[in-house]
């Protein structure tokens, strides 16, 4: 069974790369064995993500990505059991700021944010572990490994 994606745009012009983002999400979900997942993804402005962050997390500031876990199993119209994982919101404004600040391509940063959102919907968090004096986060380590696995996948094509 193939994952079901509901992708929308709010507060920004529809990006030319939107369908490639859907393909990327499908590929990541397949790699993570989430073929039964239903996932909603919103690409939006800083203003929209700030409102979501304020209304749902009590933080009156824009951020790069938010995940809202639903975690409900239901039967779809074909009689298949589906897992409604939840929602991911990505600020496209913040995405481009992050890319410039971290000196990475917008394509790499978008992939990182989408993977990050999926891992949160899997129940992962930013919990830190200490190995000697170094701080280590299992979620971020996995995120970066997945990002490396999809290095050749291009969402935002460079001009």
Automatic annotation (TrEMBL):
Single strand-specific metallo-endoribonuclease involved in late-stage 70S ribosome quality control and in maturation of the 3' terminus of the 16S rRNA. Signal peptide: none annotated. It comes from Treponema maltophilum ATCC 51939. This is Endoribonuclease YbeY. Binds 1 zinc ion. Keywords: Cytoplasm, Endonuclease, Hydrolase, Metal-binding, Nuclease, Ribosome biogenesis, rRNA processing, Zinc. One of its GO terms (cellular component) is cytoplasm. Belongs to the endoribonuclease YbeY family.
